[in-house]
Structures are given as C-alpha cells and as structure tokens.
C-alpha cells in the first residue's frame, strides 16, 4: 500500500509528543526535523518539502498549539491540513465539453500505464456517465500497444479506431475524430505514443495532435513508483503541452508516495485519478483530503 514508510515515520514522530502535557518551541523544532527527513525519504520534491516544513513550523509555534491542552492533536491537524493543501485541497473532476465529443488525450512515457489507464477511464465513464466512447490508437511505434488497446476495447465493448502502424498518427487522430462525429460518440480517448524518456520528436508529435484535436483534457499518465522522476516527467510534459491533469498509476506498489505529494505543487496541475492495480476497475478519483488521512493513519 502507498505511503507505508511515510505513514509509519510520521506516526512515530507524533507519538513522542503525545506523552507531553505541553510542548515547547524546541519540541516543535525537533519534530519538524523528523518530518522533513520522513518527507525526503518518501522522495518528496526538495522545494515542496522546504515550503511545507516552513508553513507547518510557523503554524505550530503559534499560541493555538503551544497553549493548547492537546498540542499533539493540534499539530497532527495542522500537518493533515497542509498535506491536503500541497496535494490540491479537493478532488478535481474531468473537464467536459459543452458539445460532444469530449476529447481526452492520454500522454506519458512508455510503461507508465497509459493504455491501461485509457481503458480504466472508459470503464469509469461508462459507469458514471453511461458514456459511449471511441478509443483512437495513435501509438504507431509499438504494434503491441494497438493490440492491447483493441483487447481493452473488446473487453469493454467500445470501438477502437486504428490504421495499423504505417500511418501518420496526426492523420489517424484526424480520421478517428471524424468517425466519432459520424457515430456521435460522446467521448474520444486518444492513446498516444510514449518513449522511454522525453524527447523532441515525441513532443513535436504530441503538440501536433494537440493542435488538431483541441482536447478538453490532456491527461499525463505517470508511474508513482518512480518518485521524484515522476515529478520531473510531469514538469517536462507540462512545460511542453500545458497538460490539464495527471493520472498517477501503480500507487498499489508505491511504498513511498513522493510523486503524489509533489506533482501538484511543482506543476500546478491536479492529480485527477490514481491507478491502484492492473485491472480495469482499479482507478479511483484522487481525493487529497482522504489521501492525507491515509498518510496520517
Ligand atoms: P503504457 O506503455 O504507458 O501504455 O503502459 P501500459 O498501459 O501498457 O502499462 C504498463 C504495465 O503497467 C502493464 O503491465 C500494466 O498492467 C501495468 N499497470 C498500469 N497501471 C497500473 C496500476 O495502477 N497498478 C499496477 N500494479 N500496474 C499497473
């Protein structure tokens, strides 16, 4: 489960305070040192950690805590509120176009879980919105990716538009969108190509697709298990494409949680969903406040 390490360390730190009737500024200082280490060990971005610690410290040495009869509880409350804040305060839903179709472009590095997340999102929209989506297979560099998307389409009973691997992805998207218009699909999800790392050619292609598709959402899919690297990837994609949100995958295997805690603050873009397994129903709306509760146990 996510955040095991961080959870345990924070809980231990706060447990030390519980025995004390009153706490001093020095206690706060010591505690914040431990919280800082716990966050860095969880692979939270350095600047995010620094700002977080500063804010919590300022609030914690205020009279509301030091004069309180339950200072440990007050501090946990402050940490909870600030953790929630760095993750974006409240859940952010999907953008929806006033006229159909709503176009969602999925981007991300290879292996992040882009194709799987496209399938999960289709299932989510089918259940929530009775959606009739079309999937477009625009990852022409990996034949396996197209096959994978087709399999997902079959599983969910959703059409997949593809032209194999011999065509220009920009043209494929154009043709796919035309088909969606004709078939009156209410959502279109475009599965784009990924690479092992961000490169100019990939970004150029994605920028072209963005230009012609005018998506309502550009969702970046990142692997939470890569920690700070995921945060860097998010920064890179956001600089180039001005993404609208993030799907953070593989939270089920991420024991640290640094990406979940950093991405919003670093990019300014919300984490909209988290992936918590390989199955198509393993997608959850990201709720910062619930995540903070989970971290603090
Ligand atoms: P893509 O290259 O970005 O399209 O990545 P895929 O969708 O093919 O996913 C790569 C691998 O990650 C596959 O084995 C997926 O089953 C797995 N995967 C995707 N999302 C999750 C998740 O949330 N949790 C787990 N445990 N595995 C996932």
> What ligands does this structure carry?
guanosine-5'-diphosphate
Instruction: Report strand order across the widest sheet.
Output: 3-2-4-1-5-6-7-8
Helix content: 40-55%
Q: What structural category arises from helix and sheet content?
A: alpha/beta
Distance between the termini: 12 Å
> How do the SSEs run, as a string of H and E?
HHHHHEHEHEHEHEHEHEEH
**Mean pLDDT over the full residue set:** 94
Give Rg in angstroms.
22 Å
Proportion of strand residues: 5-15%
> Could you give a short account of the major beta sheet?
8 strands, mixed
Principal-axes geometry comes out as elongated
Number of helical segments? 12
Count all strands and give the number.
Answer: 8
What does this structure look like?
With 297 residues, the chain is of the alpha/beta class. 54% of the residues lie in helices and 14% in strands. The protein has 12 helices and 8 strands. The protein has helices at 4-18, 25-41, 46-60, 63-66, 71-86, 114-129, 143-156, 169-183, 200-213, 228-241, 258-267, 288-296; strands at residues 102-108, 133-138, 160-161, 187-192, 217-223, 245-249, 271-275, 283-285. Strands 3-2-4-1-5-6-7-8 form an 8-stranded mixed beta sheet, sandwiched between helices. Helix 1 (4-18) packs antiparallel against helix 5, helix 8 (169-183) packs parallel to helix 9 (200-213) and helix 10 packs parallel to helix 11 (258-267). The longest helix is centred in the first third of the chain and has 17 residues, at 25-41. It starts with a helix and ends with a helix. The mean pLDDT is 94. The structure holds guanosine-5'-diphosphate (GDP). Residues 108, 110-116, 145, 148, 194, 221, 249-250, 252-253, 275-278, 282 line the site of guanosine-5'-diphosphate (GDP).
């Amino acid at each position: 489960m996510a955040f095991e390490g961080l959870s345990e360390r924070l809980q231990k730190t706060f447990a030390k305070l519980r025995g004390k009737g009153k706490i001093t500024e020095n206690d706060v200082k010591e505690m914040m040192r431990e919280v800082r280490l716990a966050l860095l060990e969880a692979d939270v971005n350095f600047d995010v950690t620094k700002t977080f610690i500063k804010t919590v410290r300022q609030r914690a040495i205020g009279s509301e805590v030091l004069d309180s009869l339950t200072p440990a509880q007050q501090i946990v409350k402050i940490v909870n509120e600030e953790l929630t804040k760095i993750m974006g305060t409240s859940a952010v839903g999907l953008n929806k176009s006033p006229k159909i179709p709503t176009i969602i472009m999925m981007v991300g590095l290879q292996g992040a879980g882009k194709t799987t997340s496209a399938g999960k999102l289709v299932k989510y929209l089918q259940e929530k919105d009775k959606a009739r989506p079309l999937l477009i297979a625009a990852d022409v560099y990996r034949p396996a990716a197209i096959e994978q998307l087709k399999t997902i389409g079959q599983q969910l009973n959703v059409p997949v538009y593809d032209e194999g691997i011999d065509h220009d992805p920009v043209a494929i998207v154009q043709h796919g969108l035309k088909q969606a218009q004709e078939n009156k699909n209410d959502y279109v999800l475009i599965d784009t190509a990924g690479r092992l790392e961000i490169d100019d050619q990939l970004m150029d292609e994605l920028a072209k697709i963005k230009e012609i598709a005018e998506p309502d959402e550009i969702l970046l899919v990142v692997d939470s298990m890569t920690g700070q690297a995921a945060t860097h990837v998010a920064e890179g994609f956001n600089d180039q494409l001005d993404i609208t949100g993030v799907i953070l995958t593989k939270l089920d295997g991420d024991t640290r949680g640094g990406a979940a805690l950093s991405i919003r603050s670093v990019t300014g873009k919300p984490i909209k969903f988290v992936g918590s397994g390989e199955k198509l129903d393993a997608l959850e709306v990201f709720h910062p406040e619930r995540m903070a509760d989970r971290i603090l146990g």
